[in-house]
Amino acid sequence: MPDRSFNAELAELGQQALERLKAAHRAREEALARCRETIRACGLAIRAVHRLEREAVSERLAEAEVALRRAQDALGQFPALAASGFLHDAEKEYAEARLTVALVGGDPLPSFEDMKVGLAAWLNGLAEAASELRRHLLDRLRAGETARGEELLLAMEDVYDLLVSVEYPDAITGGLRRATDSLRAVVERSRSDVTSTVLQSALQQTIEKSLRGT
Question: pLDDT value at position 213?
Answer without folding.
Answer: 65
